Amino acid sequence: MAPMAPSPSALWRFIDKDDAAALTLVVDTPAGLYTRRVPPALPLAPGVEHGPAAEQAAHRAAAAWGLPDFVFRQAAHAQKGSGLRELGDRLLLAGHRGAVVQVKARTIVPKDDTAEAAWIKKVATKAMSQAKGTVRQLRMMPADMVNGRERILNIDGNAYEWIAVFLLDHPGVPAGTVVTWQEIGMPGIALTRRDWDFLFDQLRSTTAVLDYLFRAAKEPSVPLGEEPVRYYEFAAADADASPPQFDTELVGPGGVAYSTPLLPQAPAGDDGTQAHLMIRLLSEDIALSPLKPPLTEANRVALLHDLDRLPVGARTEWGHLLADMLRDVPEVPEEHCKWRFRRMLHEDDTRQLIFGAATLLDSRVKAAFQAYVLLRHHEVTTRTGLTEQTATLGVLLTPRRGGNSPWDTTSIRVEGHLDLPDDELHLYRQAWNRTPEDGTAVPG
Protein backbone atom coordinates (compact mmCIF):
# COMPACT_ATOMS: atom_id res chain seq x y z
CA MET A 1 0.00 0.00 0.00
CA ALA A 2 1.31 3.48 -0.85
CA PRO A 3 2.11 5.75 2.12
CA MET A 4 -0.55 8.21 3.19
CA ALA A 5 -0.14 11.64 4.75
CA PRO A 6 -0.92 11.76 8.46
CA SER A 7 -4.52 12.46 9.36
CA PRO A 8 -6.11 13.63 12.61
CA SER A 9 -6.82 10.71 14.93
CA ALA A 10 -8.05 10.26 18.46
CA LEU A 11 -4.85 9.61 20.38
CA TRP A 12 -3.90 10.22 23.99
CA ARG A 13 -0.46 9.97 25.54
CA PHE A 14 0.52 9.56 29.16
CA ILE A 15 3.81 9.47 31.02
CA ASP A 16 4.11 6.33 33.15
CA LYS A 17 3.88 7.50 36.79
CA ASP A 18 6.27 4.69 37.81
CA ASP A 19 8.76 5.36 35.02
CA ALA A 20 9.01 8.85 33.57
CA ALA A 21 11.16 7.51 30.71
CA ALA A 22 8.24 5.40 29.44
CA LEU A 23 5.27 6.57 27.40
CA THR A 24 1.77 5.11 27.08
CA LEU A 25 -0.34 5.80 24.00
CA VAL A 26 -4.07 5.12 23.82
CA VAL A 27 -5.28 5.02 20.23
CA ASP A 28 -8.92 5.09 19.15
CA THR A 29 -9.18 2.59 16.28
CA PRO A 30 -12.23 1.19 14.42
CA ALA A 31 -11.80 -1.96 16.51
CA GLY A 32 -11.86 0.01 19.75
CA LEU A 33 -9.27 1.57 22.03
CA TYR A 34 -5.76 0.23 21.62
CA THR A 35 -3.05 0.78 24.25
CA ARG A 36 0.65 0.78 23.39
CA ARG A 37 3.24 1.20 26.11
CA VAL A 38 6.52 2.54 24.79
CA PRO A 39 9.21 1.48 27.26
CA PRO A 40 12.41 3.40 27.95
CA ALA A 41 15.38 2.93 25.64
CA LEU A 42 17.53 -0.16 26.13
CA PRO A 43 19.90 0.17 29.10
CA LEU A 44 23.50 1.13 28.46
CA ALA A 45 26.26 -1.40 28.93
CA PRO A 46 27.89 -1.09 32.36
CA GLY A 47 31.53 -0.10 32.54
CA VAL A 48 31.50 1.68 29.17
CA GLU A 49 31.85 5.43 28.74
CA HIS A 50 28.44 7.06 28.25
CA GLY A 51 28.90 8.25 24.66
CA PRO A 52 30.22 4.97 23.19
CA ALA A 53 27.70 3.02 25.30
CA ALA A 54 24.81 4.99 23.72
CA GLU A 55 26.19 4.24 20.24
CA GLN A 56 26.49 0.55 21.09
CA ALA A 57 22.93 0.45 22.46
CA ALA A 58 21.51 2.01 19.27
CA HIS A 59 23.52 -0.45 17.20
CA ARG A 60 22.31 -3.33 19.38
CA ALA A 61 18.64 -2.38 19.01
CA ALA A 62 18.89 -2.20 15.21
CA ALA A 63 20.75 -5.52 15.02
CA ALA A 64 18.48 -7.42 17.42
CA TRP A 65 15.09 -6.19 16.19
CA GLY A 66 16.15 -5.64 12.59
CA LEU A 67 19.03 -7.68 11.16
CA PRO A 68 22.71 -7.36 12.09
CA ASP A 69 23.56 -7.69 8.39
CA PHE A 70 22.18 -4.18 7.76
CA VAL A 71 24.01 -2.32 10.56
CA PHE A 72 27.54 -1.08 9.79
CA ARG A 73 30.52 0.66 11.32
CA GLN A 74 33.89 1.45 9.76
CA ALA A 75 36.14 -1.59 9.43
CA ALA A 76 39.42 0.31 9.86
CA HIS A 77 40.18 3.95 10.53
CA ALA A 78 42.10 6.02 8.02
CA GLN A 79 45.79 6.47 8.73
CA LYS A 80 47.06 9.77 10.04
CA GLY A 81 48.16 12.12 7.30
CA SER A 82 46.01 10.41 4.67
CA GLY A 83 43.78 13.44 4.32
CA LEU A 84 40.70 11.37 5.14
CA ARG A 85 38.82 11.68 8.41
CA GLU A 86 37.65 8.70 10.40
CA LEU A 87 34.10 7.54 9.74
CA GLY A 88 32.81 7.27 13.29
CA ASP A 89 29.16 7.09 12.26
CA ARG A 90 26.96 4.02 12.37
CA LEU A 91 25.28 3.21 9.06
CA LEU A 92 21.98 1.50 8.39
CA LEU A 93 21.95 0.05 4.86
CA ALA A 94 19.22 -1.97 3.13
CA GLY A 95 18.61 -2.08 -0.60
CA HIS A 96 19.40 1.28 -2.11
CA ARG A 97 18.62 3.28 1.03
CA GLY A 98 21.06 4.25 3.72
CA ALA A 99 20.98 6.16 7.01
CA VAL A 100 23.94 7.87 8.65
CA VAL A 101 23.24 7.62 12.39
CA GLN A 102 24.88 10.23 14.61
CA VAL A 103 24.40 9.36 18.31
CA LYS A 104 24.92 12.20 20.76
CA ALA A 105 24.74 11.71 24.53
CA ARG A 106 24.34 14.20 27.40
CA THR A 107 27.17 13.10 29.65
CA ILE A 108 26.81 15.73 32.39
CA VAL A 109 23.96 16.67 34.68
CA PRO A 110 21.40 18.62 32.60
CA LYS A 111 20.96 22.34 33.21
CA ASP A 112 17.70 24.32 33.02
CA ASP A 113 15.33 23.72 30.10
CA THR A 114 16.43 26.79 28.15
CA ALA A 115 20.09 25.79 28.34
CA GLU A 116 19.31 22.18 27.46
CA ALA A 117 17.24 23.18 24.42
CA ALA A 118 20.13 25.34 23.21
CA TRP A 119 22.63 22.52 23.75
CA ILE A 120 20.42 20.04 21.88
CA LYS A 121 20.13 22.41 18.90
CA LYS A 122 23.91 22.88 18.91
CA VAL A 123 24.74 19.16 18.89
CA ALA A 124 21.98 18.46 16.34
CA THR A 125 23.52 20.98 13.95
CA LYS A 126 26.92 19.37 14.46
CA ALA A 127 25.51 15.87 13.96
CA MET A 128 23.83 16.78 10.68
CA SER A 129 26.99 18.42 9.41
CA GLN A 130 28.99 15.31 10.31
CA ALA A 131 26.44 13.07 8.55
CA LYS A 132 26.72 15.22 5.43
CA GLY A 133 30.50 14.88 5.56
CA THR A 134 30.27 11.09 5.88
CA VAL A 135 28.07 10.79 2.81
CA ARG A 136 30.31 13.14 0.84
CA GLN A 137 33.36 11.08 1.75
CA LEU A 138 31.69 7.76 0.89
CA ARG A 139 30.72 9.18 -2.48
CA MET A 140 34.27 10.36 -3.16
CA MET A 141 35.95 7.17 -1.98
CA PRO A 142 34.19 3.89 -1.09
CA ALA A 143 35.14 2.49 2.32
CA ASP A 144 35.26 -0.94 3.91
CA MET A 145 32.55 -1.23 6.55
CA VAL A 146 31.89 -4.12 8.93
CA ASN A 147 28.35 -5.23 9.71
CA GLY A 148 26.82 -6.72 12.83
CA ARG A 149 28.08 -10.19 11.88
CA GLU A 150 31.66 -8.88 11.61
CA ARG A 151 31.63 -9.23 7.81
CA ILE A 152 33.29 -6.62 5.66
CA LEU A 153 31.59 -4.98 2.67
CA ASN A 154 32.91 -2.18 0.51
CA ILE A 155 30.36 0.64 0.57
CA ASP A 156 30.10 3.09 -2.34
CA GLY A 157 28.08 6.10 -1.23
CA ASN A 158 26.85 6.71 -4.78
CA ALA A 159 24.81 3.51 -4.66
CA TYR A 160 22.47 4.79 -1.94
CA GLU A 161 19.76 7.33 -1.25
CA TRP A 162 20.77 8.81 2.11
CA ILE A 163 19.10 10.19 5.21
CA ALA A 164 20.80 11.73 8.25
CA VAL A 165 19.58 10.59 11.67
CA PHE A 166 20.40 12.62 14.79
CA LEU A 167 19.90 10.23 17.70
CA LEU A 168 19.85 11.79 21.17
CA ASP A 169 20.53 10.04 24.46
CA HIS A 170 19.34 12.47 27.14
CA PRO A 171 17.88 11.87 30.63
CA GLY A 172 15.32 14.66 30.39
CA VAL A 173 14.60 16.36 27.08
CA PRO A 174 12.66 19.58 27.75
CA ALA A 175 9.01 19.12 26.75
CA GLY A 176 8.15 20.37 23.29
CA THR A 177 11.77 20.58 22.06
CA VAL A 178 11.73 20.69 18.26
CA VAL A 179 15.15 20.38 16.62
CA THR A 180 16.03 22.40 13.52
CA TRP A 181 19.20 22.53 11.42
CA GLN A 182 20.48 24.08 8.24
CA GLU A 183 19.84 22.40 4.91
CA ILE A 184 22.38 19.60 4.33
CA GLY A 185 21.37 18.44 0.87
CA MET A 186 19.58 15.28 2.02
CA PRO A 187 16.67 14.35 4.29
CA GLY A 188 17.23 14.41 8.03
CA ILE A 189 15.32 13.44 11.15
CA ALA A 190 15.87 13.87 14.91
CA LEU A 191 14.95 11.08 17.35
CA THR A 192 15.55 10.10 20.93
CA ARG A 193 16.93 6.64 21.65
CA ARG A 194 13.50 5.68 22.95
CA ASP A 195 12.01 6.68 19.58
CA TRP A 196 14.65 4.60 17.78
CA ASP A 197 14.05 1.53 19.92
CA PHE A 198 10.29 1.93 19.52
CA LEU A 199 10.49 1.88 15.70
CA PHE A 200 12.61 -1.26 15.61
CA ASP A 201 10.55 -3.03 18.27
CA GLN A 202 7.31 -2.07 16.51
CA LEU A 203 8.35 -3.09 12.98
CA ARG A 204 11.07 -5.74 13.46
CA SER A 205 12.33 -4.91 9.94
CA THR A 206 15.26 -2.72 8.95
CA THR A 207 13.71 -2.05 5.55
CA ALA A 208 10.44 -0.93 7.15
CA VAL A 209 12.27 1.35 9.59
CA LEU A 210 14.27 2.98 6.79
CA ASP A 211 11.09 3.49 4.77
CA TYR A 212 9.48 5.10 7.81
CA LEU A 213 12.42 7.45 8.40
CA PHE A 214 12.35 8.68 4.81
CA ARG A 215 8.57 9.12 4.99
CA ALA A 216 8.65 11.01 8.30
CA ALA A 217 11.50 13.26 7.15
CA LYS A 218 9.21 14.72 4.48
CA GLU A 219 6.89 16.06 7.20
CA PRO A 220 7.48 18.93 9.66
CA SER A 221 9.60 17.97 12.67
CA VAL A 222 7.84 16.78 15.82
CA PRO A 223 9.04 17.34 19.41
CA LEU A 224 11.83 15.01 20.47
CA GLY A 225 10.41 11.94 22.14
CA GLU A 226 7.07 12.09 20.29
CA GLU A 227 7.97 9.97 17.26
CA PRO A 228 5.62 7.19 18.47
CA VAL A 229 2.76 9.72 18.29
CA ARG A 230 3.59 10.56 14.68
CA TYR A 231 3.94 6.83 13.92
CA TYR A 232 0.36 6.19 15.06
CA GLU A 233 -0.91 9.16 13.06
CA PHE A 234 0.68 7.59 9.98
CA ALA A 235 -0.70 4.17 10.93
CA ALA A 236 -4.22 5.60 11.26
CA ALA A 237 -3.93 7.18 7.82
CA ASP A 238 -2.69 3.88 6.34
CA ALA A 239 -5.58 1.98 7.91
CA ASP A 240 -8.08 4.40 6.31
CA ALA A 241 -6.43 4.36 2.87
CA SER A 242 -8.09 2.68 -0.07
CA PRO A 243 -6.08 -0.24 -1.46
CA PRO A 244 -4.33 0.51 -4.76
CA GLN A 245 -5.47 -1.07 -8.00
CA PHE A 246 -3.32 -4.02 -9.03
CA ASP A 247 -3.25 -6.15 -12.17
CA THR A 248 -3.40 -9.67 -10.75
CA GLU A 249 -2.86 -11.19 -14.20
CA LEU A 250 0.81 -10.21 -13.92
CA VAL A 251 1.34 -13.34 -11.83
CA GLY A 252 -0.90 -15.43 -14.10
CA PRO A 253 -4.37 -16.93 -13.61
CA GLY A 254 -5.55 -17.14 -10.03
CA GLY A 255 -3.66 -14.09 -8.78
CA VAL A 256 -5.26 -12.24 -5.86
CA ALA A 257 -4.77 -8.61 -4.85
CA TYR A 258 -3.68 -8.35 -1.22
CA SER A 259 -3.29 -5.10 0.70
CA THR A 260 -2.06 -4.39 4.21
CA PRO A 261 -1.24 -1.06 5.91
CA LEU A 262 2.42 -0.10 5.57
CA LEU A 263 2.51 0.68 9.28
CA PRO A 264 0.63 -1.74 11.54
CA GLN A 265 -0.96 -0.38 14.70
CA ALA A 266 -0.09 -3.49 16.70
CA PRO A 267 3.59 -4.37 17.18
CA ALA A 268 4.98 -7.06 14.88
CA GLY A 269 4.08 -10.50 16.21
CA ASP A 270 1.44 -9.21 18.63
CA ASP A 271 -1.01 -12.04 17.88
CA GLY A 272 0.37 -14.20 20.68
CA THR A 273 2.00 -16.75 18.34
CA GLN A 274 5.55 -17.08 17.07
CA ALA A 275 4.50 -17.14 13.41
CA HIS A 276 6.07 -13.76 12.63
CA LEU A 277 9.45 -15.19 13.65
CA MET A 278 9.46 -17.50 10.62
CA ILE A 279 10.80 -14.73 8.39
CA ARG A 280 13.53 -13.91 10.91
CA LEU A 281 14.47 -17.59 11.19
CA LEU A 282 14.71 -17.91 7.39
CA SER A 283 16.83 -14.76 7.30
CA GLU A 284 19.14 -16.27 9.91
CA ASP A 285 19.41 -19.47 7.86
CA ILE A 286 20.51 -17.45 4.84
CA ALA A 287 22.79 -15.17 6.85
CA LEU A 288 24.63 -18.08 8.47
CA SER A 289 24.97 -20.30 5.39
CA PRO A 290 28.43 -20.60 3.83
CA LEU A 291 28.87 -18.74 0.56
CA LYS A 292 30.00 -20.60 -2.56
CA PRO A 293 32.03 -18.62 -5.14
CA PRO A 294 31.33 -16.52 -7.07
CA LEU A 295 28.76 -15.31 -4.51
CA THR A 296 29.85 -12.46 -2.21
CA GLU A 297 28.62 -10.86 0.99
CA ALA A 298 27.06 -8.13 -1.14
CA ASN A 299 24.97 -10.81 -2.90
CA ARG A 300 23.89 -12.18 0.49
CA VAL A 301 22.84 -8.76 1.76
CA ALA A 302 20.83 -8.11 -1.44
CA LEU A 303 19.03 -11.43 -0.94
CA LEU A 304 18.30 -10.64 2.71
CA HIS A 305 16.91 -7.26 1.72
CA ASP A 306 14.49 -8.86 -0.74
CA LEU A 307 13.27 -11.10 2.09
CA ASP A 308 13.08 -8.17 4.51
CA ARG A 309 10.80 -6.33 2.06
CA LEU A 310 7.92 -8.65 2.95
CA PRO A 311 5.36 -6.24 4.47
CA VAL A 312 5.33 -6.27 8.26
CA GLY A 313 1.54 -6.61 8.35
CA ALA A 314 1.68 -9.78 6.22
CA ARG A 315 4.43 -11.64 8.08
CA THR A 316 2.31 -13.41 10.65
CA GLU A 317 -0.05 -14.79 8.00
CA TRP A 318 2.89 -15.91 5.88
CA GLY A 319 4.51 -17.50 8.93
CA HIS A 320 1.39 -19.55 9.65
CA LEU A 321 1.25 -20.58 5.99
CA LEU A 322 4.89 -21.68 5.87
CA ALA A 323 4.45 -23.75 9.03
CA ASP A 324 1.37 -25.38 7.49
CA MET A 325 3.25 -26.08 4.25
CA LEU A 326 6.06 -27.79 6.15
CA ARG A 327 3.57 -29.98 8.05
CA ASP A 328 1.72 -30.85 4.85
CA VAL A 329 4.39 -31.75 2.30
CA PRO A 330 5.58 -34.99 3.99
CA GLU A 331 2.07 -36.46 3.79
CA VAL A 332 2.55 -38.28 0.46
CA PRO A 333 3.19 -41.88 -0.61
CA GLU A 334 6.77 -43.07 -0.84
CA GLU A 335 8.64 -42.16 -4.01
CA HIS A 336 6.49 -39.04 -4.40
CA CYS A 337 7.29 -35.39 -3.77
CA LYS A 338 4.69 -32.82 -2.80
CA TRP A 339 5.15 -29.15 -3.62
CA ARG A 340 3.41 -26.08 -2.26
CA PHE A 341 4.04 -22.49 -3.30
CA ARG A 342 3.09 -18.96 -2.38
CA ARG A 343 4.46 -16.01 -4.30
CA MET A 344 4.03 -12.27 -4.14
CA LEU A 345 4.70 -9.47 -6.59
CA HIS A 346 5.20 -6.06 -4.99
CA GLU A 347 3.02 -3.23 -6.23
CA ASP A 348 5.94 -1.67 -8.13
CA ASP A 349 6.05 -4.88 -10.23
CA THR A 350 9.82 -5.22 -9.82
CA ARG A 351 10.19 -7.47 -6.77
CA GLN A 352 8.84 -11.00 -6.75
CA LEU A 353 9.07 -13.21 -3.67
CA ILE A 354 8.48 -16.96 -3.91
CA PHE A 355 8.18 -19.35 -0.98
CA GLY A 356 8.04 -23.05 -1.67
CA ALA A 357 7.97 -26.25 0.35
CA ALA A 358 8.76 -29.75 -0.87
CA THR A 359 8.78 -33.22 0.65
CA LEU A 360 12.52 -33.76 0.44
CA LEU A 361 15.77 -32.14 -0.64
CA ASP A 362 17.90 -33.76 -3.32
CA SER A 363 19.52 -32.74 -6.59
CA ARG A 364 16.31 -33.26 -8.57
CA VAL A 365 14.26 -31.10 -6.19
CA LYS A 366 16.90 -28.35 -6.29
CA ALA A 367 16.90 -28.40 -10.09
CA ALA A 368 13.10 -28.36 -10.23
CA PHE A 369 12.90 -25.43 -7.82
CA GLN A 370 15.47 -23.47 -9.81
CA ALA A 371 13.44 -24.10 -12.96
CA TYR A 372 10.32 -22.84 -11.19
CA VAL A 373 12.00 -19.60 -10.05
CA LEU A 374 13.54 -18.93 -13.48
CA LEU A 375 10.23 -19.55 -15.22
CA ARG A 376 8.20 -17.29 -12.92
CA HIS A 377 10.82 -14.53 -13.23
CA HIS A 378 10.71 -14.80 -17.02
CA GLU A 379 6.91 -14.75 -17.09
CA VAL A 380 6.60 -11.68 -14.88
CA THR A 381 9.26 -9.67 -16.70
CA THR A 382 7.70 -10.57 -20.04
CA ARG A 383 4.32 -9.32 -18.86
CA THR A 384 5.54 -6.13 -17.18
CA GLY A 385 8.31 -5.15 -19.60
CA LEU A 386 10.41 -4.14 -16.55
CA THR A 387 13.08 -6.75 -17.14
CA GLU A 388 16.21 -4.86 -16.11
CA GLN A 389 14.66 -3.50 -12.88
CA THR A 390 13.17 -6.80 -11.70
CA ALA A 391 14.56 -9.32 -9.20
CA THR A 392 13.02 -12.58 -8.01
CA LEU A 393 13.89 -14.31 -4.75
CA GLY A 394 12.93 -17.94 -4.25
CA VAL A 395 13.14 -19.65 -0.83
CA LEU A 396 12.49 -23.39 -0.54
CA LEU A 397 11.82 -25.18 2.75
CA THR A 398 12.18 -28.95 3.06
CA PRO A 399 11.66 -31.01 6.23
CA ARG A 400 14.87 -32.19 7.87
CA ARG A 401 15.09 -35.54 9.63
CA GLY A 402 17.40 -34.95 12.56
CA GLY A 403 19.73 -32.07 13.28
CA ASN A 404 19.25 -28.78 15.10
CA SER A 405 16.67 -27.34 12.71
CA PRO A 406 13.34 -28.85 11.61
CA TRP A 407 13.92 -27.74 8.02
CA ASP A 408 16.53 -26.97 5.37
CA THR A 409 16.46 -23.61 3.60
CA THR A 410 17.48 -23.25 -0.06
CA SER A 411 17.47 -19.86 -1.75
CA ILE A 412 17.82 -18.63 -5.33
CA ARG A 413 17.92 -15.01 -6.49
CA VAL A 414 17.83 -13.86 -10.09
CA GLU A 415 17.53 -10.44 -11.66
CA GLY A 416 17.30 -8.80 -15.07
CA HIS A 417 17.23 -10.62 -18.39
CA LEU A 418 17.87 -14.37 -18.13
CA ASP A 419 18.31 -15.20 -21.83
CA LEU A 420 16.69 -18.62 -21.44
CA PRO A 421 16.83 -20.83 -24.57
CA ASP A 422 13.46 -21.76 -26.04
CA ASP A 423 13.99 -25.47 -25.41
CA GLU A 424 14.63 -24.82 -21.69
CA LEU A 425 11.55 -22.63 -21.41
CA HIS A 426 9.52 -25.39 -23.05
CA LEU A 427 10.76 -27.90 -20.46
CA TYR A 428 10.05 -25.52 -17.58
CA ARG A 429 6.51 -24.90 -18.81
CA GLN A 430 5.93 -28.61 -19.28
CA ALA A 431 6.99 -29.21 -15.70
CA TRP A 432 5.27 -26.29 -13.94
CA ASN A 433 2.38 -24.96 -16.02
CA ARG A 434 0.43 -28.18 -16.41
CA THR A 435 -0.72 -28.72 -12.78
CA PRO A 436 -2.07 -26.56 -9.94
CA GLU A 437 0.75 -24.97 -7.94
CA ASP A 438 -0.53 -25.47 -4.40
CA GLY A 439 -0.50 -28.98 -2.99
CA THR A 440 0.83 -30.80 -6.07
CA ALA A 441 2.21 -34.31 -5.54
CA VAL A 442 4.32 -35.75 -8.36
CA PRO A 443 6.48 -38.86 -8.69
CA GLY A 444 9.84 -38.37 -6.98
UniProtKB/TrEMBL annotation:
It comes from the Bacteria. This is Uncharacterized protein. It comes from Streptomyces globisporus.
